[in-house]
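Batch manifest, entry 17 of 40.
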Amino acid sequence: MAMKRRTAMLFLGILAALALRWGSAPGLAQSQPILVGAAVSLQPALTEIDRLFTARYPDIKVEYNFANSGSLQQQVEQGAPLDVVFFAAASFMDALAQQNLLVAGSRRDLLSNRMALIVPANARTKVQDFADLVAEEIRVLSIGDLQAMPAGRYAQEILTQAGVFETLRPKMVFASTVREILTAVEQGNADAGILFTSDAQLSNRVRVVATADPITPIIYPVALVRDTPAGRSYLEFLTSGEAAEVFVKYGFIRL
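Output type: structure tokens
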């Protein structure tokens, strides 16, 4: 229920933003506005890419809705006016494709990533691997929501592979975004956290003690929800070499 309420609030926020964007400011009628729904882990890279895209396409106004992939999937299913969706896991895109909610042939499996185990930068810890999280010194482990967040699902797979998932359940605190995981470890509210390596490199207040790949390959797919020239221009730009350099800079792996 809490996730549905968050999704509904995000949906209303999108509609309000669009009303302000399209219903005010002279000259906007001549612009080509698009709304991109993207996983939170993509925010730093897409913020930089947006500046490059705007320089090339000054008439296309791009708005972003950053949320966890589960919330974004629900928004599309509920009719939110998204033009492009960019998830942190293939399963959410697969679900929309099965419902014929995507523009046929527009999907691109663009990026990959790895998972990182982080601790506070100044922590004196003997933890060197995911299996070490059972140690008494680890009292709180921050991971993503197991249903709505790809990072949570990937963390579960890695901990299950290590044979410690059920043992660690009492220590787990579930976040709704990867930023919450990073902040919890930065501020010492969690003794450790599991998130994408691309997020871990954003802060000098945490350090990575281990990395791993889950059983399910980490894939970031992007696709059109509505078929517009502006949306296609944006999708094409995301697949360009110029955008690829930015993604790699922020720790992603180009497929």
